[in-house]
Amino acid sequence: MTSLLIDSHAHLDSPRYDTDREAMLRRAYEARVGAVLAIGIGENASGMDGALAVCREFNGREGIPRLYASAGVYPHNTEEINDKVLGKLDRLLAEPEVIACGEIGLDYYHEGAPRAVQAGGLVLQLEIAAVRRRPVLIHCRPTDNTTDAWDHLLGILEKHWRATGLGGVMHCFGGGWEEAQRALDLGFLISFAGNLTYPKAQPLRDVVARLPLESVLVETDAPWLAPAANRGKRNEPAWVVQTARTLAELHGISEEEVAAATTKNFNRLFALGSDVGN
Q1: Which residue ranges make up each domain of the chain?
Q2: Does the predicted TM-score (pTM) go above 0.90?
Q3: Where are the beta strands (DSSP E) in 42-145?
Q4: What is the CATH T-level fold of the domain 5-269, as seen in this structure?
Q5: pLDDT, tens digit, for every residue of 155-213?
């Protein structure tokens, strides 16, 4: 049986898909994408249920990938966290389609919430995810030419998350080999997006080449980070094929082997049936 790819991270509720969301999902299925994890962060904390709404609208339709959802508060929006927001997150993580908490984490690159607020918001969400037994999807972006956010993030995860044994995904990984090793030690899978295909991304490709295949996922982060061949355009899940092709080249294996391995990794992390993505 031929394995289908899984796009492990796409913002399917983005307004950029409002005019052709169904057609976009059909293109993904035609490109042999069997499942997509829709990321529920919305434009703000109150919109974290958007991904679940997309799942419920399209799941079960012929010719469309199987859809899953996440829910979480993005680092920039952590100033919006209050009891109402946390209660909503807790309720969403109890829904069967919502298989992960995220994307959550730290972002020191863009102007956003103060660092202490981001860290506090991250810990609060980790606590809810632990109770609901949901893996986490981590966003981490340091300031230029530093590892500041990585150092803080990994310290938080080692203190507040390791003991859960739930692991998660380092989404759109952009760290170095040391950060990758620490993430693996914490039980995380490492996911790569379209920027893996960019000409200047050789350091990132060097990391991928050293990682065991059982530790990686592929994603689009759509509608952002279109792969090199489509750079500048709105990204979409069908194009995860291009990232998978680069991963196959780096490991010297077939695209079919990459699809089989990354699908197996996804299903294992989220405790899904082996038929997902096949």
Answers
A1: 5-269
A2: yes
A3: 66-71, 98-107, 136-141
A4: TIM Barrel (3.20.20)
A5: 999 999 999 999 999 999 999 999 999 999 999 999 999 999 999 999 999 999 999 99
